[in-house]
Amino acid sequence: MKVLALSVSAGTGHFKAAKAIKNYFEKNYTDVEMEIIDTLRYINPVINKIVVGSYLQSIKITPKIYEKLYEHADKDDTISSFSEMANHLLSIKIKSLVEDINPDVILCTHPFPLEMISILKRKGKISIPAIGILTDYAVHSFWFYDYIDAYIIPNEDFIDEAAEKGADINSLYPLGIPVESQFLMPVEKAAIKNQLGLYEGKPTILLMGGSLGIGNIKKIYEALSLSDLDIQLIVCTGRNHRLKEKIEEIYEKAQKKSLILSYTENMNAIMSVSDILITKPGGLTIAEALVKGLPIIINSPIPGHEEKNANYLLNCGIAATFKKSSDAVNVVRQLIKNTSRLEQMKSIALEKSKPNSTKDICRLIIEQSKK
Question: Are residues 229 and 90 in the same domain?
Fold first, then answer.
């Protein structure tokens, strides 16, 4: 069986979701071949640079404009119509790709290629089963199109909203956001702490801002490391090398045990030894944290989809938040002193998690291939 996964490199979450599925297939199936394509880069590197570059610049420099566009696109057909015209033209090259690979199932972890596949199916150019995987704890109209056979949503809480946005309720599968199988593996926390040079029995705060190292991480680290809290810190700066340099400068005068990391593939171990995660609420990061039962403090959500992620976590009781970087100290203090609240946050996180998401999604893909 062949699976074609179409994604877009706007951040790492969309690709990580596809990669988790590919890795599971490779480890557990000998008769499944899966290929992941960076859709816009495949169609035209210049278009990819313009679209992805504009997105990354907007969330860094003009996040409020991005928020308005996100909200407007969810409620108004004008942007949707423009998107359809653009994707109608771009879908021509995707048709050639589909013909070359000849997959049994097409998987999309971003709405752009999903709309292209919908257009091709509507015009009768292809008839291959297509699946969309939502990679946020938020529902947006841009995800839902005709002729898509299945939608994988984060959990049962999103069924009604997805149906209101136009999805056929019979096409909705609340299987979760796929995470790597390593997050299900038990770890020996004491051994990992010893290996990382961390103290046993001291609250461990994990501070991160996604692969881009977005958010006021420097100010939060400075506030926490110079506070009177009896904690230790792990800071993941992603691929933001300048941020890592700034954190290391603060570390020289810091009063707390700190582990400073760049982008790491060892997040299962890092999350396993952490007691609280301070992060911007990217969909994949949330999914991983929920599987680990890790309470979250929300920092600097990207307006739009991440603000929706944040609202979901806060409404469920999984997360806390703060407005100013200096307030992080008091929020952490409240949580580590209120052990019953911290345990409740862990319990709800595990309740809302989908630890078998990747396995269940792979089974669904196989089922869809037989239709």
Answer: no
- Structure token digits, residue 81: 């119509």
- Quick one: average pLDDT of 184-213? 88
Token pair, residue 330, equals: 């008091």
Count: domains in the chain? 2
Question: Does 169 lie in the same domain as 209?
Answer: no
Return the CA Rg of the chain: 21
Cα distance between residue 69 and residue 79, in whole Å = 8
What tokens were used for 195? Answer: 């290996």
Verify that 343 and 364 share a domain, yes or no.
no
Write down the pLDDT at residue 62. Answer: 53
> What's the rounded Cα separation, in Å, for the pair 69 and 365?
33
Q: How far apart are CA 86 and CA 99, in angstroms?
A: 21
Q: What is the DSSP letter of 265?
A: S
Domain encompassing residue 261: 182-352
Tell me the Ramachandran region of residue 256: left when phi exceeds 0, alpha when psi lies from -120 to 50, beta otherwise. beta
**What band does 360 get if pLDDT is binned at 50, 70 and 90?**
very high
Are 247 and 221 contacting, i.e. CB atoms less than 8 angstroms apart? yes
DSSP per residue over 86-147, as a string?
HHHHHHHHHHHHHHHH--SEEEESSHHHHHHHHHHHHTTS----EEEE--SSS--GGG--TT
| DSSP states of 76-91 | -HHHHHHHHHHHHHHH
- Are the C-beta atoms of residues 258 and 248 closer than 8 Å to each other? no
Q: Rounded to whole angstroms, how far apart are CA atoms 213 and 245?
A: 12
